[in-house]
Amino acid sequence: MNVVLMGPPGAGKGTQAKRIARKLDIPHISTGDMLREAVAAGTDLGLKVKEIMDEGLLVPDDLMIDLVRERLAREDTRNGFILDGFPRTVEQAIALDRMLDELNKEIDVALLVDADEQEVVKRISSRRVCPECGKVYNLLTIKPEVEGHCDRDGSRLIQRDDDRPDTVRARYRVYSEKTEPVIRYYSGEKGKLVKVDGSGEIDTVTAEIVNHLENAKHG
Known about the structure:
By secondary structure, the protein is α/β, with parallel strands linked by helices. The protein has a domain at 2-115 and 180-218: P-loop containing nucleotide triphosphate hydrolases (Rossmann fold). 49% of the residues lie in helices and 13% in strands. The chain contains 8 helices and 7 strands; from the N terminus they run βαβαααβαβαββαβα. A 5-stranded parallel β-sheet has the order 2-3-1-4-7, sandwiched between helices.
């Protein structure tokens, strides 16, 4: 199956992507990983990407599309893929359809792992990080053995600026504004959108996603 994955920060889509990729035995393709891989490989495309990223700029659409095309043409995507982080705009979604058409592929499902603003704020603002070793905790799900201190080295845990409630709310609003048109693109005439509530238990969410994908496969 060829799946596009969407969802707000903190909805758990990364966790679900890894689980579904293992279950379906298809690659989980994250645009962030793709960019790092291209830079490490030192290809012409990778060198262009490195130059842009070193200047702190966003990688433009045409370069992202070239990267995605190159990745989706590889042999390991023969039985499908989960594409995470692309498309982020309707223009990218249209470009993806054209690109897949050239590769004799199409998107089977646009999977939206959703969670409301309140849930996202609660989850992300509960994160704490060890400033020494980088270990990440969550006061709701992965608590340290000693409150406020790292299990590994005893350092006092901190909350990153990105994880503060006001910042999380701002990120959620930006995500909603940018992604809404893409959600409409896949839910409209294409009828490819599958929406699941990411705020439930991890296993429950996985089971629901698998059920939807099975139905889409046989539908």
